[in-house]
Amino acid sequence: MSTPTHARRGRPAPSRGSDPPAHAGTVAEVLNEIEAATDRRTRRAMLPERNLVAALITLDRDRAAEVLSLVTTADFEDHLSAVIAALIRVIACERGEPPSPQAVFALTRSLGPKLTEFHVSENRIAQELTEVYTLGLPITVWSSARQVVEDSYRRRLGAGFTRGKQMCDTYADIPAIEAHITEAREPLLAHRERLITLTHRAATNTP
Question: Is pLDDT at 115 greater than 60 in this prediction?
């Protein structure tokens, strides 16, 4: 009986089973990660903060400045959106220019090493500007602004109540608790007034 060629040459016999290739698991993992990244990007695209940034970079200087008179940088929870909103504020409110994506990126580049103080990179801002500009979602500047301010108001309320509860639970002096409530009240009222104004604008203005 003749010896099989692969045996004579010292090579292992070919597998006769149906085992998948060794790289199949890696390919599946990569595909799953791509799908997960796409899902994350889709969900992130729907965030009102990103939608507001997307709207602002399409507005003229006067309308952008009007919106930003009712929305503060502190209203943004997402750090990157807050940084871009701050850049837009400089362009529209201080320089009196339209906050186009090109203008925002030009300002970003002009900051040079100072950009590191914002804990973001030039490339990351460029990527974000490109993404929000090409979202393809309806521009709803007033509705997005209202939602950003409402979310911020809810976070502020929650933080205030949490701190007050902590003071009560730890038996802080009652005058200290009352002082905390008094100090928190004025900024909350101002915040609430902005939310009321934006709610009215969202209901009565075109996108």
Answer: yes
